[in-house]
Amino acid sequence: MEWTLAKKKDFRVFSQRWDTFPFNGVRRIREDECLVSIYFSEIQDRIRAKDVFELFGCHGNVVEVVIPPKPNNFGKRYGFARFTNVEDVRMLAVRLDNIVIDGKKMHANVPRFERKRRPGGGGGSGGL
Question: Is the peptide bond before 69 cis (omega within 30 degrees of 0)?
């Protein structure tokens, strides 16, 4: 029995990609801008990051929306939206928490853990 050499083109990666909008990444954030993240969950499978970006744009200045490919621990789809220049974070979360799409309520809240900013003010390209 002989060994056969496996070539890279024979392997396929079936990992799902993160759904992000805008697709080209986050615009440059000025030092004086305050950046706030909002966690949202229980979104339907057909909803994409661009849809959430447009929907949340009616409630504030949205910079980026990210929806991971895997569901949370409860099996529900979730994501994060980043806003700039938010005066009251709790009121923004309450307004977003009252959104109903096709008869199903989407939940929104301030994330439990706040991400630390890197020294030098760079957000990087590693997500939220």
Answer: no
